[in-house]
Write a structure and sequence with these properties.
about 425 residues, alpha+beta, Metal Binding Protein, Guanine Nucleotide Exchange Factor, Chain A, 2 domains, 9-stranded mixed β-sheet, 7-stranded mixed β-sheet, 8 helices, 24 strands, about 30% strand
């Protein structure tokens, strides 16, 4: 009898860890299938989370996400693709998701030491761009990838084993009522910009700056991306700035004459990145992107029963507590720290806004909500309304690229955050 000379097959390797949220109600035991993760710029995720980039990796096994045993809410993104997202009921942090029975976890909630050892790669619309020049293949060798199609194929094989469908394949392709006939722009220069979460329960309408968008009506201390929190004297931290740092006048920047142009379209709102722990663990993304908007320019409606009603105040009379969020219709308010509240969609979990008591009539709104419609087959009305405008062009927003807010909080994630900072500065959006 011949002896079996075949070498034993290697056993699959997993990496056990915990995925947690900001409020602490969700601590989900998970096992990673590999030490490779991806950046995803899909418009679907931008609307679902409110962030421009999400970060995730494939799971080795199915986690226990039963709402009866966890603090997780589930949202069905698409029935045909069996795409379901899971987020915390209290702080709305996106934790994990599944597509066609393949499971993934967002890296933002993973333990620092696990993330420190992850290799990240880009993936978007069927193409990827690696953070390094080489990708490890199934046979353990490394190969330089030159073309987007090759990189996408390698990513699917060695990272996920599954290719995420593009946004255009999702079944929920119409968000009824997000854009209305009366909102269609007729002027050459648009006077307003629309935003929404993925499910359409939260709607935003942004208008151009007015006199009330400036001091003394609108006031705020300087943000961290302009003056570091850790390097600013305590007595200066909550002191209102003497200038409207949240608005940039393009005409002044271009001419250098120091005179403000009265044309509203020349004045843009500032947007920036934040890498603080609270933003990371609440948005479910390694980086949160904010647009800094005067309340005089912003209207928000949320679904209450069968109707959409105006959000009355970005600082409710009865602020939430970290143990129990205030839920009003499809809007959830969560106090993430003392004198700071955040709003999110109760249905799909999208981060909507941040507000602090040190502010007066200025609110941070998640940049991903203003991404052009995630539906590729848009109606003619939607095309007329959004056109080419949105958070990633220069018609409404100017991005601050000199510094990521609270980069010091990145700790074990510092290499990832610094790499993204350099990419962003190079792109110079």
């Amino acid at each position: 009898m011949k002896a079996n000379t075949q070498p034993p097959q290697p056993q699959p390797v997993s990496y056990p860890t915990t995925a947690s949220c900001h409020c602490g109600r969700t601590r989900l035991p998970v096992a990673l299938a590999s030490q490779t993760a991806v950046f995803d710029l899909s418009p679907t995720w931008q609307k679902l989370t409110g962030t421009l980039i999400v970060f995730y990796t494939k799971l080795f096994e199915v986690p226990d996400v039963d709402p009866a045993r966890t603090a997780l809410s589930e949202y069905t993104v698409d029935d045909q693709q069996k795409f379901t997202a899971y987020f915390c009921k209290t702080c709305s942090a996106h934790i994990c998701f599944t597509i066609d029975e393949v499971w993934f976890v967002h890296t933002a909630g993973l333990e620092d030491e696990i993330v420190k050892n992850l290799t990240f790669q880009w993936v978007h619309s069927g193409s990827t761009m690696t953070t390094t020049a080489a990708i490890e293949t199934d046979d353990g060798e490394t190969t330089n990838q030159e073309t987007p199609s090759d990189r996408a194929k390698s990513l699917a094989e060695c990272v996920q084993g599954y290719v995420l469908p593009s946004a255009s394949t999702f079944g929920k392709q119409e968000r009824e009522g997000i854009v209305r006939e009366e909102d269609v722009k007729t002027e050459k220069e648009s006077t307003h910009l629309h935003g929404s979460c993925y499910c359409g329960s939260i709607r935003l309408r942004l208008t151009r700056p007015t006199a009330q968008s400036y001091p003394p009506y609108t006031l705020s201390p300087f943000p961290d991306f302009l003056r570091s929190f850790y390097e600013t004297p305590m007595e200066e931290l909550n002191k209102p700035a003497d200038t409207a740092w949240w608005i940039i006048d393009d005409s002044v920047n271009k001419t250098g004459n120091g005179e403000s142009n009265l044309e509203a379209s020349s004045r843009k709102f500032i947007a920036a990145f934040c890498s603080c722990t609270s933003c990371r663990k609440i948005a479910g993304s390694e980086l949160q992107q904010w647009a800094f908007l005067p309340e005089s320019c912003l209207s928000l409606k949320y679904k209450l029963g069968e109707d959409f009603v105006a959000w009355p105040d970005f600082w409710p009379e009865s602020p939430a507590t970290s143990s129990l969020p205030v839920i009003d219709g499809n809007m959830t308010i969560y106090e993430s720290s003392r004198n700071v509240i955040r709003g999110s969609c109760r249905m799909c979990g999208a981060s909507i806004f941040w507000n602090g008591r040190m502010r007066q009539n200025l609110v941070d709104v998640s940049a991903g909500l203003f991404v052009e419609s995630h539906v590729q087959n848009r109606s003619s009305i939607q095309k007329q309304c959004s056109g080419d405008e949105g958070i990633l062009d220069d018609k409404w927003f100017k991005w601050s690229i000199d510094r990521l807010s609270f980069v010091e909080d990145a700790k074990c994630r510092i290499e990832l955050v610094k790499h993204l900072e350099e990419i962003w500065k190079t792109a110079a959006i």
